[in-house]
TrEMBL record:
InterPro entries, per the entry: Cytosol_ACT, HOTDOG_ACOT, HotDog_dom_sf, Thioestr_dom
This protein's name: Acyl-CoA thioesterase
CDD domains: BFIT_BACH
Stored Gene3D superfamilies: Hotdog Thioesterase
Domain HotDog ACOT-type: start-end pairs: 2-114
Record's keyword terms, sorted: Hydrolase
Family: Belongs to the acyl coenzyme A hydrolase family.
Source lineage: Bacteria, Pseudomonadati, Pseudomonadota, Alphaproteobacteria, Sphingomonadales
Biological source species: Parerythrobacter lacustris
Source taxon at top rank: Bacteria
């Protein structure tokens, strides 16, 4: 795995499982949205709300107790929007083995204090 810092890191718990005993894909998507939102708000220097989520894939499975790290990067910007790529990497509970379990793309719109879309400061956001 490349040397990079996750936006968030969380452990899958029994309440995060689907009826078949695997980690629920919706839980994975929500964790990725939280990580992507943290990056959008920090880099956008304010409120950012998700307006779309696309291109989801779940190439691996997680078990209860596995640790999920969510890595995000800015893929592009619009006049008021930021597009972020998110990747979920699971680490087994009692070891160091990792595997990609999810990926997706989120688009956020930056909002002002009145809740209206505001312009992206081009010098403030770094595409990575």
């Amino acid at each position: 795995m490349p040397d990079r810092t996750p936006q968030i890191r969380v452990t899958a718990m029994p309440t995060d499982l689907n009826p078949y005993g695997g980690v629920f894909g919706g839980w994975l998507m929500s964790q990725m949205a939280l990580g992507a939102g943290a990056l959008a708000s920090r880099e956008g220097e304010g409120k950012a709300v998700v307006v779309s989520a696309t291109d989801f894939a779940f190439p691996g499975a997680m078990a209860v107790g596995d640790e999920l790290s969510v890595y995000c990067s800015i893929a592009g910007t619009g006049q008021t929007s930021v597009t972020i790529l998110a990747e979920g990497i699971a680490r087994e509970r009692h070891g160091e083995a990792t595997r990609k379990v999810a990926s997706g793309t989120f688009k956020f719109v930056l909002l002002d204090d009145e809740g209206r879309p505001r312009a992206v400061k081009s010098e403030g956001l770094r595409t990575r």
